[in-house]
Specification:
By secondary structure, the chain is an alpha+beta fold. The protein is 24% helix and 33% strand. The chain has helices spanning 2-19, 35-38, 105-109, 182-185, 195-198, 202-214, 218-223, 227-230, 235-243, 249-261, and strands at 39-44, 49-51, 57-64, 70-72, 82-88, 124-126, 131-137, 148-156, 168-169, 175-179, 267-280, 283-294, 297-312, 315-327.
Length: 329
Amino acid sequence: MDRILLISITLILTGASLNAYPNRNARGEVSENYIQAQGIVDIKIPKMQFREKEPVSAVLSVKNTGNEVLRIFPYGKDLRSFQVLVRDEDGRTVTKLEEEPKQDPVLRRRNKVENLVGDEVKEIILHKDETFSKEIRLDRIYELEAGKKYFVTAYFYPNISEYGDHFIRSESHPYFSVEERKKDWILPGVPYQDPQTDGLEPEEVIHLFMGAEKKQNWKLHFKWIHFPEYILAYDRYAKDWQQAEEAEKDFVLEEFRNYLSENRSGVLQYYKILGVEKVSSNLSKVRVAVERRVNKIPVRYEYEFTLRRVPEDSGQFWKVANLLAKVRK
């Protein structure tokens, strides 16, 4: 009887000692996973407000906070291991886009690791305080409308190919909003100006006009001059222009252009727009402070440009029609 009892106790102790060792894989390493106990899943959004049509990205991270090694097997071909749920202010799930997101070309060039059924799998080992992160473009997955606020929750599946019902939810639940375009913000009564249809303002024309002279780009400089009226501001050429016949006016204009390009009034060094006065819908005046250098001596002027809307084939444009200059002390 004592012998049978001794054998029973020995077998029990032997079984207990065998079970004391953890499960190990083929390489002799511990195969137990501590992801539920010491793994933390977090999701972050770089900012809280995005403009319409701006890329909206979120970073999902898995961190090992314990001493034991964590092993995760993210499925990389799509986002099945990294699932992000986006809800609106009413708590309703946002509709997903029908088209699938395009694969990153960088990831496409890397060597793929696949299992026997063709699933792309990778084993990632996380030691203590190590983090694995994945960037996800939310605007490529969900239909995000402007003017709304959205709340984000992430779900990470450590090994979705073998344990499809095991996931960890993110501890943080950030939110963001998508702003409407600036054009939609404009209050009623404030006109929105489209550069393609409304053209340039008088102040912008003067910037192009003076900037072209400073760079000695006379072709662009002459582009903003309404010569039939501007030439009358120069007494030297006004009389010849008025008395010339139609066929001779081209020669007078050519001499006038050569005179302007010679910089006889001095080389332009500096200019600053002082003010703009809108006389009418087709007439404006722009005051400009100008500094020129004549024989290495700086001379300061105050110009008053008169600009007129000139009709052309492609529309009406502001052009310099007159110039009044006075010396500043």
